[in-house]
């Protein structure tokens, strides 16, 4: 019972991030397909995949087609009621649903002024009054949820509400936006969440740079958790004979702490080089 999901470039497509996180965070099997934002083939590839016009888009095992991140979220919450995608029925669930919908339709000033870019941070951004108003509203609704749950996520454990606010958290971090201590702690929880780390590692491994997302600002290192010092190397032999992800024979290699590890293709290697600790199967192999 595996879903199919179409996404755009991971470094920039915040909507794709919202669509993918529920699958990874709640261990729902999915095959990921990629298209390229702004490419000549984008419209036809999206339409062919699920009949829509944007990413993400998903196809359920029963043939249902979902052409919006919110539709994907509601479908998964109904299809997997025991996976904890939403808080238990009651006031907390109602608040979570409200926050999800407000994120889906709101905060246009923040989105417009601060496009998501997981490959770099930007220093010296001066938020307009409209962006400041969005940030104030975001802090208020985050605080209301955190006051009831005590964190680290909005409703204690990770839910769809956190998946939908992940692109907001990475914008706050990437543009060093002015928010208070509670919001900063929540942003740190988002950046340290293993699914978010895996998504960013894959964004780095994709190496698909869109210059249109560059800002007239000074670059700064993206404020992600520090990664272990892995590096790609041209040759083995490796400690392992099979890729930790696919089980296929190894062809590409990295070095970490003096040992060589192998993978079945460059992408498997490069996503691991980007953030080794984000990948449980790799770390389990390293520590076995």
UniProtKB/TrEMBL annotation:
<dbReference type="InterPro" id="IPR036282">
    <property type="entry name" value="Glutathione-S-Trfase_C_sf"/>
</dbReference>
<protein>
    <submittedName>
        <fullName>Glutathione S-transferase</fullName>
    </submittedName>
</protein>
<dbReference type="InterPro" id="IPR036249">
    <property type="entry name" value="Thioredoxin-like_sf"/>
</dbReference>
<dbReference type="Pfam" id="PF13409">
    <property type="entry name" value="GST_N_2"/>
</dbReference>
<dbReference type="InterPro" id="IPR004045">
    <property type="entry name" value="Glutathione_S-Trfase_N"/>
</dbReference>
<feature type="domain" description="GST N-terminal">
    <location>
        <begin position="12"/>
        <end position="78"/>
    </location>
</feature>
